[in-house]
Amino acid sequence: MRIAIQGEPGSFSHEAALKAEAGATILPCSLSAEVFAAVMEGSVDAAVIPIENSLAGSVAEHYDLLLAHPVAVESEWLLRIRHNLIGIPGATVERVRQAYSHPVALAQCRRFFAEHPGIGAAPFYDTAGSVKQMMELRDAGIAAIASAQAARTYGGEILLEGLEDNAENYTRFFLIRRRDRLEQEPRPDKVSLAFAVENRPGSLVEALQVFAGMGTNMTRLESRPVPGRPWEYVFYADYQLDEGTAADRALEMLPRHCSMVRELGRYRAAGSVA
User: Fold this and answer.
1) Among 11, 37, 113, 193, which is most buried by a count of CB atoms within 10 Å?
2) What positions carry a catalytic annotation?
């Protein structure tokens, strides 16, 4: 199985993809748009994308790309995010003067930097990419903050583990495929969809009442602006199913109150974390 990810080999997306399919061939892409292009062109079988972090929130670009392409969510799962201080072999924490990583990762390790005022936080485009750069520079004064997978991938040495401020740090990932190649989950219990309502009083309440009337549990609701149409919004929602026909009933009823409805995927809710 060929899986596209955004980021360098050794990134958290790489780790998540290997959990989805242990023997997968991973195609790293620099940009998220390239990930979706690879899926649409058929150069990969699927893609693994982060969609939401328990501390940093949603990945807005990925919601926009899901809506813009004929792809669907096949499955989801949660990955425990563990940040590590990684140096070149033989380095020590005392010698480190700068730690590179993605800005989101740096923001999740504020306590570490407060406790180590001699180490400066240096933003970089990718967590695993920061390890790759560090190994190329071979400077014991430079470290990276990334996953254990990144340390293994590039031969770095973990100097400190568990740098994250909050241990309840998880990222939710989607496995996506082209709709015409989707392997449908036989017992889905969760649905992701996008919808837009007319700009009139009560329209959003009427749409939400569809879910309430069916007794479904909406687990997530977020609005995103529509590109090129100021002050218009698309709502992204996740809801749980008691039985499979509930999804069909919702999709039948929502167009009465919405100007657009698009199902993004039916799948089994992630039941455990790793």
Assistant:
1) 11
2) 171, 173
